[in-house]
Amino acid sequence: MKSTAISLMALAAALGAFAAAPAVAQPGVAQSSATRTAQAYHAPKNAFGQPDLEGVWTNATLTRLERDPKYGANLVMPSTDAQAVEKENSKFIAEANKPTDPKVKTTDLPYDCGRGFKGSDCGYNFAWTDPGTEVMAVAGQKRTSIIVEPANGQLPPLTPEGKKRLAARFQRSAFDGPEARSLGERCILSFGSAAGPPMLPLLYNNNYQIFQTRDAVTIVVEMVHDTRIIRLNTGHLPAKMKQWMGDSVGHWEGDTLVVETTNMRPEQGFRGAGGDTKVVERFTRIGPRQILYRFTVDDPEVYTAPFTGEVALNASKGPIYEYACHEGNYAMPGILAGARELEKQGRDPGAGPRDASGAPAAEGQ
Fold first, then answer.
1. Domains in the chain: how many in total?
2. Is 200 a domain residue?
3. How many CA atoms lie within 13 A of 266 on its CB side?
4. Which structural domain, as residue segments, surrounds residue 287?
5. What are 313-361's pLDDT values in tens digits?
């Protein structure tokens, strides 16, 4: 799938677009169930005597990163709620897949087209998205959120420095040049945090292929073209050597691959986190067709506390096809050329949606 210009804000909003009704499950039930399942299952060993994690896996899910506050501290979603979310998603996709009258003007289309997309971002056809069709299930139990700690399923508050960094990030113009656009639009790194760490689901291209050798574990990320190389049983590179996706070093603790990542480039910061972030990931195969992926993000300069999440990596059919990002990618020159044209007309490229006459679009357009 080729890269298309997507608003970073819209893409982030789309991650939390699925809400549901209050749950009745008790806090901690899902965690203990997943732990019992992991203890009961032992992954087959590869030729190196390591637990075998190889294969193609997907983290596509309708489960939100942060929990709907209606759920409180409940991590488990009742089956009736999960069915309602999945049914609503099917309905949304069916409606979005209906053909559009070619005579319709962009100003005739809804301004808010769902999943956090508004205005010009509605040009992104939902037929090309694939966020998954089911609520995430870990050890057979549906989850209300990816975040499991703090117990309320919310990201911890930002520190004053974290707020300052995040504000500075969104204050700069996104139309000055290619460096101001997102890493995904520039074909440098995945949209959002698909490549990670942490590796989180997005609107499409949620597949990963894992390869193992005696000294390394490699994860090929479908989104854009990223490949993570996790070196085993070694030390970290010098702190000054910042890298895309950081410097990942792993070791085995029983059936679990534990990975510590440091030295991340500040441009890749997760939700405001910077280059001093440390991420610890744990990959545990808890069944023939599922890996429990658990991560903890720690950045005391930006977040008031560490936070932990869990994602189900489910077996998927391969192969993973090439993500042709630069080839045929007209989004970048189109965005910047359009901005320069607006500036010639004395208009602000970042002033928001406009109708055909150039006037601000009316509410609801």
1. 1
2. yes
3. 11
4. 8-315
5. 999 988 898 888 877 778 888 889 989 998 999 988 877 655 444 444 4
